[in-house]
Design goal:
The protein is of the alpha+beta class and 154 residues long. Helices cover 29% and strands 28% of the residues. It has one domain: Glutaredoxin. Strand 4, helix 3 and strand 5 form a beta-alpha-beta unit. The mean pLDDT is 92.
């Protein structure tokens, strides 16, 4: 997915096993944080960083979603343990990570088919306004660049 393109549709289950359809958030800014797997060191650090800055995102009226291929039940436990206040969505069937072009074949411990660590901002018009895909899953997103972009997007 390139900047300016229409964002692929997302309808995934959250930690309460409720289907969340991002079409219900039309007209809002949406920040998607794709991460490889719950409980891994960098993923936990990333989600906790977002948790700690969540009021910033709320202040910009942005809807934040974390997306991984973990099951809804695993994400629920992770969310509870890390006290995460934003929605985590399960792409267990790996359809969304493929649609966004962030499918990573190989990961640690011979895990196959996880999300590349990446961030997308979808503007209120439904187009991709910001994109960062990290080649090294051990790196965190560029949060300052993300925040600068989010502040300029309608």
């Amino acid at each position: 997915m390139q900047i300016g393109s229409i964002a692929p549709h997302i309808a995934l289950y959250n930690t309460e096993r409720k289907k969340i359809d991002l079409n219900d958030y039309q007209g809002k800014k949406i920040v998607l944080f794709f991460f490889p797997a719950a409980w891994t060191g960098t993923c936990t650090a990333e989600m906790c960083s977002i948790r700690d800055d969540y009021s910033y995102y709320e202040g910009l009226r942005a809807e934040v979603f974390g997306i991984s291929v973990d099951s809804p039940l695993a994400l629920k436990k992770f969310k509870e343990e890390q006290q995460i206040g934003f929605q985590l969505l399960s792409d267990f069937n790996k359809e969304v990570i493929r649609a966004y072009g962030v499918y990573r074949q190989d990961f640690v411990c011979e895990m196959h088919g996880v999300a590349e660590r990446s961030v997308f901002i979808i503007g209120s018009d439904g187009t991709i306004q910001y994109r960062e895909v990290l080649e090294n899953p051990g790196n965190l997103p560029d949060f300052p660049a993300l925040k600068r972009a989010l502040e300029t997007i309608n």
